[in-house]
């Protein structure tokens, strides 16, 4: 009896952990572009987020942003340095910026990482060939949550 | 106070790593051709750029050095190869370029500086590559060169060398206007899944590093360009193709009407800069 209860509890927890991610087309952005609810339904992992941030085939955020604490050569300078971004941005703001920065900074050159339609001449990755929309988003819901968790660690401490 | 000075010094020290902006070097080729590598922006760029800057300024000192002397500039080897092609009889008319144009020195001075340009007889805007192929197919009865082929790049370089040091002076009015407007619109269109326009990188962010690449203004005055990366001459449209592809977009074909329009517009953004081809890039 007791055992079953525990098992059920564990099952419930597991099912919460595999919650359906919010589809890119159903994300609800606030007036200034923030997104309140987790896209994946799971907490983010800051270590994974650091990897997504630094890896070319993933977020490749370092192509435009510097973070002093990262041991990555050739960090770019197209975007602002993000050393203390966890200090002055909330997780909801960061989630919105990473998912689709254009809702926060209308004309920004920062790509929209959780967007699948509405592109001009969408291509199939870096092949130069045409692709049909919807495209897979540049990052998954969980990768965005991981990034948010990582960015929240960037504080002046 | 002391602290401030120290911070400033640290900022200065940090600077070379992310050099930022164009450097202040001057480019003189073979100790005699003084290149205009920075010029007041042409009027049509008012509000967009004050100054136009050659891509040469954004390269490392070592790469820059290679362009100062024809013995060091590997691109010149391909110019020599094109001399042979210039004099080679080809096609059903049994003619070479030289049959009609004598030497490139005699006939091609200043030509590169005004291309792309309107061809009255054909009633179209032509790039230099298209004009070369028009002569091959219509006047020589020969096969066209592949648009971005080595043969084409070499021939373009031979013709361009005759204009080295002369200011780019591409016409934007009259019959080319519509094509020019089309190119301008493309320049500001945010293509692909990354939604980046030429302007996002080459107008808004020139001088900044994007990862390891120091962004220039994306000028065409140095084309065809010798790249250390692939050890050959590279054409304008091959570069455009790569830049569009890198936005995760469906790119355009070299020689397509779209890229011809884009080339006209981009070339006009460089009006006032010296023709540098073949320039050297990493």
Automatic annotation (TrEMBL), chain A:
Keyword Transmembrane assigned: no
Pfam families referenced in this protein's UniProt entry, alphabetically: Cytochrom_C
PROSITE patterns in alphabetical order: CYTC
Signal sequence coordinates: 1-19
Superkingdom, natural source: Bacteria
InterPro entries linked to this entry: Cyt_c-like_dom, Cyt_c-like_dom_sf, Thiosulf_SoxX
Keyword match Cell inner membrane: no
Domain Cytochrome c, residue spans: 44-155
Keyword entries, A-Z: Heme, Iron, Metal-binding, Signal
Gene Ontology MF term list: electron transfer activity; heme binding; metal ion binding
Record-linked SUPFAM superfamilies: Cytochrome c (SSF46626)
Protein name per UniProt: Sulfur-oxidizing protein SoxX
TrEMBL record, chain B:
One Gene Ontology term from the biological process aspect of the record: sulfur oxidation
NCBIfam families noted in UniProt: thiosulf_SoxA
Protein name: SoxAX cytochrome complex subunit A
Binding residues annotated for heme c 2, in chain numbering: 198, 201-202, 243
Transmembrane segments: none
Residues annotated as binding heme c 1: 97, 100-101, 135
An annotated GO cellular component: periplasmic space
């Amino acid at each position: 009896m007791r055992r079953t209860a525990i098992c059920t509890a564990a099952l419930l927890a597991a099912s919460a952990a595999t919650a359906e991610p919010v589809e890119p087309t159903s994300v609800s952005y606030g007036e200034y572009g923030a997104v309140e609810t987790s896209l994946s339904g799971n907490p983010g992992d800051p270590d994974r987020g650091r990897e997504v941030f630094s890896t070319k085939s993933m977020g490749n955020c370092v192509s435009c942003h510097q973070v002093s604490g990262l041991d990555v050569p050739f960090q770019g300078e197209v975007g602002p340095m993000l050393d203390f971004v966890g200090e002055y941005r909330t997780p909801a703001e960061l989630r919105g910026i990473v998912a689709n920065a254009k809702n926060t900074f209308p004309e920004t050159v920062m790509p929209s990482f959780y967007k699948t339609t509405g592109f001009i001449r969408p291509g199939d990755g870096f092949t130069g060939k045409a692709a049909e929309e919807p495209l897979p988003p540049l990052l998954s819901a969980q990768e965005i949550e991981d990034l948010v968790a990582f960015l929240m660690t960037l504080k002046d401490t | 106070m002391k602290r401030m000075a120290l911070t400033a010094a640290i900022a200065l020290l940090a600077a070379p790593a992310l050099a930022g902006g164009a450097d202040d070097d001057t480019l003189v080729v073979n100790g005699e051709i003084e290149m205009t590598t920075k010029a007041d922006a042409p009027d049509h760029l008012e509000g967009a750029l004050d100054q136009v800057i050659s891509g040469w300024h954004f390269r490392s000192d070592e790469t820059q050095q290679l362009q100062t002397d024809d013995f060091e500039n590997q691109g010149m080897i391909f110019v020599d190869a094109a001399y042979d092609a210039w004099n080679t009889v080809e096609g059903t008319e049994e003619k070479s370029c030289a049959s009609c144009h004598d030497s490139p020195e005699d006939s091609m001075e200043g030509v590169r500086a005004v291309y792309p340009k309107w061809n009255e007889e054909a009633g179209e805007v032509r790039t230099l590559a298209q004009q070369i192929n028009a002569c091959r197919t219509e006047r020589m009865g020969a096969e066209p060169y592949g648009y971005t082929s080595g043969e084409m790049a070499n021939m373009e370089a031979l013709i361009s060398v005759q204009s080295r040091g002369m200011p780019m002076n591409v016409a934007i009015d009259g019959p080319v206007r519509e094509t020019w407007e089309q190119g301008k619109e493309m320049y500001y269109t945010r293509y692909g899944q990354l939604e980046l326009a030429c302007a996002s990188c080459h107008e808004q962010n020139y001088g900044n590093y994007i990862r390891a690449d120091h962004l220039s203004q994306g000028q065409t005055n140095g084309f065809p360009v010798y790249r250390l990366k692939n050890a050959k001459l590279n054409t304008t449209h091959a570069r455009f193709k790569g830049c569009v592809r890198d936005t995760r977009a469906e790119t355009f074909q070299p020689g397509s009407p779209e890229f011809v329009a884009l080339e006209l517009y981009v070339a006009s953004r460089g009006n006032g800069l010296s023709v540098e081809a073949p320039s050297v890039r990493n």
